[in-house]
């Protein structure tokens, strides 16, 4: 099966290398070199995954993602130059699904793309299989697993697909520690690697969104060295 992928990258040498490799993996690639043009294409066409560089002419990747997430939930993997810790954190806060430091291995990128696609496919299959048991409620939190509606104290939560999966896992194991390994496998579709803070950033972003409408800093607890726990009510 061929998947449509949008690559927004102004480094021609890197882009051509990635395109050659991705086409061998049967991806259909659209390549844009400017952030503003890439955003227009992303909003007017349908893609399965977007690969987005941070440093771009026109608008940068963070601005692109901020605007894009207001309208679309398509998975986004960000490419970051080494040392761009702040931009990477901002990317997660705005809804990036994963990140990869540059220069990146095409093989590693393909593995990340496939992991994101597997997660999306699993979400779709789970949604189709859910009938009557499609609602999870814990204290002020409410999730509808079929419509992906999320609220806290009746106020809507605008969650990315990954944030929704993380919260769903925590709610379905209320009062239990859910390991980072489990969250990474089930929410991101990939094995947790050494020094990978993806799950930490998604949980941090989730906490901030909940805190905007529900002031309870201990709702999601960090269990050092183990994972995260949603407190019982």
Automatic annotation (TrEMBL):
Residues bearing PTM 4-aspartylphosphate: 53
Q: For the OmpR/PhoB-type domain, which residue ranges apply?
A: 133-232
Assigned keywords, A-Z = Cytoplasm, DNA-binding, Phosphoprotein, Transcription, Transcription regulation, Two-component regulatory system
* Protein localization: Cytoplasm
| SMART domains recorded | REC, Trans_reg_C
Q: Where along the sequence lies the DNA-binding region?
A: 133-232
Single annotated GO MF: transcription cis-regulatory region binding
Pfam families linked to this entry: Response_reg, Trans_reg_C
Q: Name one GO cellular component term.
A: cytosol
Instruction: For this entry, list what GO says about its biological process.
Output: regulation of DNA-templated transcription
Q: Which organism is it from?
A: Spartinivicinus marinus
Q: Ranges for the Response regulatory domain? A: 4-117
At the top level, the lineage of the source is Bacteria
Leader sequence range is none
Q: What is this protein called?
A: Response regulator
